[in-house]
Amino acid sequence: MVKIANIQLPEFPLLLAPMEDVSDPPFRVLCKRLGADMLYTEFISTEGLIRHAEKSVKKLDFYEEERPLGIQIFGADIEVMKGCVEIIEEAKPDLLDINFGCPVKKVVCKDAGAGILKDVPKMIRLTESIVKATNLPVTVKTRLGWDSNSKNIMDVAERLQDVGIKALAIHGRTREQMYKGDADWTLIGEVKNNARIHIPIFGNGDIDSPQKVLEYKNKYSVDGVMIGRAAIGYPWIFREIKHYLKTGEILAPPSIEERIEVCKQHLQKSIEWKGEVLGILEMRRHYTNYFKGIPNIKHYRSQLVTLNSFDEIIQILDEVGNLEVEVLAA
Questions:
Q1: I want to staple 183 with a disulfide (CB 3.0 to 4.6 A). Which of 9, 51, 172, 277 is the partner?
Q2: What is this structure's pTM?
Q3: What is the pLDDT confidence band of residue 328, given thresholds at 50, 70 and 90?
Q4: Residue 9 and residue 4: Cα distance in Å, rounded?
Q5: Helix or strand or coil: residue 7?
Q6: Domain at 281, CATH number
Q7: Domain's final residue, options 194, 227, 247
């Protein structure tokens, strides 16, 4: 078993990565039902929380069935971040996660997210202040370093552990790489196998198949993996990984009927959570993977990403189901 403070997770847990405009409660619930062991909110601006901005405050909400769940925050002002702790505690998450990994320019230019990788002493001071300000377990997600000349994750991991974090997720790229090139797990493995490190270490980056998970589990000895982009529109990846790790067999992909049913559930919950306009808009990024590999899908997918009516989208989804039946029968 893997423990983050008093949070007990199964052996080799699968974590859903926090992704802006993706890992909202409707999507997180689906991932949970299909095998994700630990979930995180979209990252939340502490500047927004302290100002009680509606979008930031809304991100604190979650369904009880999502637990264990971490609320992830980002920011660069120590006093502002400390000031948000009480707001976060009122939401009653299971842990508080600090984002030191987001590479997006509008975040980095404020010295938040991966921007703080240029000032490790400040990163450590900020983390320590959060740890001291809350009774929640504090965890961190970060990258290997700022660029190829400053891959200082080993030193960062030791120092973060020393100030009290309870787990560390490491994305195997630098900020300079953004999401380009292959993730380098070598340093992630070195951190995990460092005799000084005793907190769980989770690897992140390019996890897109059950076979790769088993390979990285054996090769780098990480305590679990965090899955991001490969889960978008395909929450079944968690189920498939668990089946493969347990049996060594590749699980058959979901049937077209299951894909349509889960997609409809996702759409319905997205609209319930965000309203019809935003709920429909933010579903669009999922459709490609929901129906990847289905013959003659292009025409229908182009409609799914342009239609603005729930009833019209449901009609298209039903047509996709009929299309696949015809294809299989042909």
A1: 172
A2: 0.93
A3: very low
A4: 8
A5: strand
A6: 1.10.1200
A7: 247
Q: Work out how many domains the chain is built from and give that number.
A: 2
Q: How far is CA 187 from CA 127, 190, 231, in A?
A: 22, 5, 24
Pairing of strands 168-171, 201-204: parallel
Which residue type is seen at 36? A
Pull the structure tokens for residue 224. Answer: 């679990």
Nearest Cα neighbor of 129 from 200, 49, 55, 46 is 46
Note the residue count of the chain: 330
38-63 pLDDT per residue, tens = 999 999 999 999 999 999 999 999 99
**In this structure, are residues 133 and 82 in contact, taking their beta carbons and an 8 Å threshold?**
yes
Select from 157, 206, 141 the least CA-distant residue to 177. Answer: 206
Q: Which residues form the catalytic set? A: 102
What tokens were used for 142?
Answer: 């970060």
**127-141, pLDDT tens digit by residue?**
999 999 999 999 999
Most confident of 86-100, 105-119, 170-184: 86-100
Say whether both 178 and 300 belong to one domain: no
Q: What is the pLDDT of residues 263-305, one digit of tens each?
A: 999 999 999 999 999 999 999 989 988 988 888 888 899 999 9
CATH value at residue 130: 3.20.20.70
Written as six digits, the tokens of 189 are 């493995």
CB 261 within 8 A of CB 291: no
242 has a pLDDT exceeding 60: yes
Distance, CA of 301 to CA of 181 (rounded, Å)? 28
Kindly state the tokens that stand for 320.
């996709």
